[in-house]
Write a structure and sequence with these properties.
The complex is a heterodimer of chains A (251) and B (489). Chain A has 251 residues and is of the alpha/beta class. Chain A is built from seven helices and twelve strands. In chain A, the strands form three sheets. A six-stranded mixed sheet of chain A has the order 6-9-10-3-11-12, with helices on both faces. In chain B, helix 10 crosses helix 11. The two termini of chain B are 38 Å apart. Classes of the chains: A alpha/beta (251), B alpha/beta (489). Chains A and B meet through helix 2, strand 7, helix 3, helix 4 and strand 8 of A and helix 1, helix 10 and helix 11 of B.
Chain lengths: 251, 489
């Protein structure tokens, strides 16, 4: 029996008093990959940030149940510890802090809040190397400061390595495919499949284009327009969108 | 959650209460309150000093009377009533101590609370092959315990309280005391010369590489008692020594004056590395209390190819006024200054360095990282001076400021005086705010606001922190509220 890992009910959210999400409903069961597609300005990234808990994104109505818990009662770091991973469209640079340090501290913070023991330095490095290899990333890159001097593709690959290390229940990936060349796109797709294709894991894939969906086959596709889901369907909906454009489908 | 909430979290994270605010009950012996010639005589007599030392102090005292207040720093210094302070406090006289076991257990407990257990360091040092740290523990004004002296002596290194050195090595003290920081250098250095209570003397003979890091922990433990530490380090030709100085002070309600002097004299091919972690009580959130820290630190790189490196992590004090400097007199001598200064609440720091290039081919590097939070003000003030006779001098200066919140200030005041056209002087400066993007990114990966800020600040200060010896890096990171760096590489 599948369990709903994410249940969004009548969500309303604003940025600087401007209404962006307007009564959004969405259910993502365990073990499924759902894609959210939509035109620019539909509220795709806003949805990701609201779910991640970004300051400045105010929830004005509705509720979100994450794996049986009230998502909005949790701070961003508590959401991470509860198993939510947010993949950033624009990963942020943190000068002077190596990826290894950043991820080890983050992972151990999550583990501590779940009552698990810290990973030792050696254990962590083994884990990080394995996940980097899975994504075709040179593990040496993890010694560099977080995202500093990384190309667009490298940043996105690094996001996927992070996802592998954190091993979340739900990954919300915000336009992870943007700015990727075809090789990187394949690698990222393969990474999502190998890390997140499991009965107890789910993915909310936010994307503008259909092309990532060639590599990560969604169970459901939802069309977001003006802050609401206006259509839902199977993988074929993505192709329809690609063919006919958002204006037709969302209308 | 709103933006304001996260800003507050960031502020809270950086505004952690001072954890080491306790004071211990140890019997004190005070000099009478106030400052006059009798005070100077009292201190000198208390320490059984020879006449020449008393004369030197009195000369300084008389000079001090005529010196002017310092008004050029970007500091709001309350008027200091020099007559309303004590100038000498010592733990009650005891028979001379042979070992740490004889030290007042209360004193040892204070160190343990600070996380600097001498006992443990002693054990560590006793381990065959283990790296050793010698601790000349300065409790308030008088050295109560000196460890490892014998082993150092076998290497020929003298590591003594300055009071003892005055008696045991008068010729060295007469030769070098005041040779780098003259009595009349400034008001606070002059005051120190008159009333210095104790401090440390290090002498590394020719060709000797000091077998261990030398470390002294300073601590103020008497209400209304100024601290006037005096440190003198002499490195003979081709020698090397690394010296670590760390301070924490107990919670206080009244301002405490601290005017230390550090002099380093480096001969030909000598190298001295001087590292400081300073965490004097900064005052409460409203700026009440806290240490006034007026420090004069200067190195004379007298010999050719001599090198002095200052590294400091400054997190404490209500007011910090401090410019560890190098007089680069020797040809091809090298001066370095690496600094992290963190100010919060109502703290004020005006700190930096002076690199004075006299020798040809002399080089200097300045890396300053200022972190401001709360309502604090953080100023980098640095002088790079190249004298006419100094050919082919090089300097590189980098000053970065990080702001947390919108009510703090960061200021960079570089002075560059170049009198020789062959000099190559570079100055880079940046000012940035800790970004919401960075904070949210780190929090989305599982770090709470406090840890996220600490991580970002740690990264900002990394270039300086990595200059610290291992023994100190840990404490420095703790002071910045930062977790240990992961086992990279």
């Amino acid at each position: 029996m599948s369990v709903n890992v994410l249940k969004i009910s009548n969500l309303h959210a604003t940025i600087a008093d401007k209404s962006i999400i307007n009564g959004l409903d969405l259910v993502v069961p365990s073990g499924e990959v759902h894609a959210i597609m939509g035109p620019n300005g539909a509220g795709k990234s806003t949805l990701a940030y609201v779910l991640g808990g970004r300051p400045g994104y105010d929830v004005t109505g509705g509720s979100v149940d994450f794996d049986g818990q009230d998502l909005f009662a949790m701070e961003p770091h508590e959401r991470a510890a509860a198993g939510l991973f947010l993949g950033f469209q624009y990963p942020v640079e943190i000068p002077g802090v190596s990826y290894l340090q950043f991820l080890r501290e983050s992972l151990n913070a999550q583990r501590r809040s779940r009552g698990e023991a810290d990973l030792s330095g050696a254990e962590f490095i083994r884990l990080a190397k394995a996940k980097a290899a899975l994504l075709g990333m040179d593990a040496e890159m993890l010694k560099r400061p977080v995202n500093v001097g990384f190309s667009g593709g490298e940043k996105k690959r690094a996001e996927m390595v992070q996802m592998g290390i954190m091993d979340p229940k739900l990954a919300i990936l915000d336009e992870t495919d943007s700015g990727l060349d075809i090789d990187a796109l394949k690698a990222v797709g393969a990474g999502i499949n190998s890390i997140m294709r499991a009965p107890d894991k789910s993915v909310l894939l936010i994307t503008h284009y259909q092309r990532l969906l060639d590599y990560v086959k969604p169970d459901r596709v939802h069309v977001l327009s003006a802050g609401k889901i206006v259509r839902s369907g199977g993988p074929e909906l993505a192709h329809e969108l690609e063919r006919e454009g958002y204006a037709e489908v969302a209308a | 959650m709103t933006e304001a909430v996260t800003n507050r979290q960031a502020r809270d994270a950086i505004a952690k209460d001072y954890e080491w605010g306790f004071s211990s009950a140890i019997e004190q012996e005070f000099a009478p309150k106030g400052l006059n010639e009798d005070t100077v005589r009292f201190i000198s007599a208390k320490k059984n000093e020879p006449q020449w030392m008393l004369d030197w102090r009195l000369k300084a005292y008389r000079a001090w009377l005529e010196m002017e207040e310092i008004d050029w720093a970007k500091l709001d210094i309350p008027a200091i009533d020099y007559q309303d302070a004590y100038y000498y406090a010592a733990p009650k006289a005891k028979p001379k101590l042979g070992s740490l076991d004889e030290v007042d257990p209360e004193i040892l407990r204070v160190y343990e609370k600070l996380g600097i257990p001498i006992e443990e360091q002693k054990v560590l040092a006793g381990v065959e092959g283990a790296r050793k740290v010698a601790v000349d523990a300065v409790f308030d004004s008088v050295s109560v315990a000196t460890t490892f002296r014998e082993e150092l002596l076998r290497a020929g290194v003298i590591f003594l309280s300055i009071s003892e050195a005055i008696k045991e090595y008068p010729d060295l003290i007469k030769k070098y005391l005041g040779s780098v920081v003259p009595q009349r250098d400034n008001l606070f250095a002059c005051l120190n010369a008159a009333v210095f209570s104790d401090g440390t003397f290090v002498y590394v003979p020719e060709g000797v590489r000091c077998p261990m890091e030398l470390s002294t922990y300073f601590r103020i433990n008497a209400e209304n008692t100024g601290q006037f530490e005096r440190t003198l380090i002499v490195a003979e030709k081709g020698s090397y020594v690394s010296y670590l100085e760390g301070c924490t002070a107990p919670m206080r309600d009244e301002n405490q004056l601290h005017a230390a002097v550090v002099e380093i004299y480096a001969h030909e091919d000598a190298e001295v590395k001087y590292s400081t972690v300073q965490n004097w009580y900064p005052g409460d959130a409203e700026g009440k209390g806290g240490i006034f820290n007026f420090v004069t630190k200067r190195a004379m790189c007298a010999g050719d190819r001599s090198k002095v490196s200052w590294t400091q992590v400054e997190t404490g004090s209500a007011i910090t006024w401090k410019y560890p400097s190098c007089i680069l007199k020797g040809a091809d001598s090298v001066g370095e200054f690496y600094s992290v200064a963190l100010t919060n609440n109502r703290q004020q720091a005006d700190t930096g360095t002076k690199m004075v290039h006299i020798g040809s081919g002399s080089r200097s590097t300045i890396v300053s990282k200022g972190i401001s939070a709360g309502h604090s003000n953080n100023t980098y003030r640095g002088l790079v001076k190249v004298m006419p006779g100094a050919e082919n001098v090089r300097n590189f200066t980098q000053c970065d400021s990080l702001l947390l919140g919108s009510e703090c200030g960061a200021h960079t005041v570089p002075y560059i005086e170049v009198r020789n056209p062959t000099a190559q002087v570079e100055h880079e400066a940046t000012t940035s705010k800790i970004s919401e993007d960075q904070l949210f990114y780190a929090m989305a990966r599982g770090l709470d606001a406090e840890s996220a800020v600490a991580l970002i600040v740690n990264g900002f200060a990394r270039e300086v922190l990595k200059q610290l010896p291992m023994e100190f890096a840990v404490e420095a990171q703790k002071l910045l509220g930062i977790s240990l760096e992961g086992s990279v590489g």
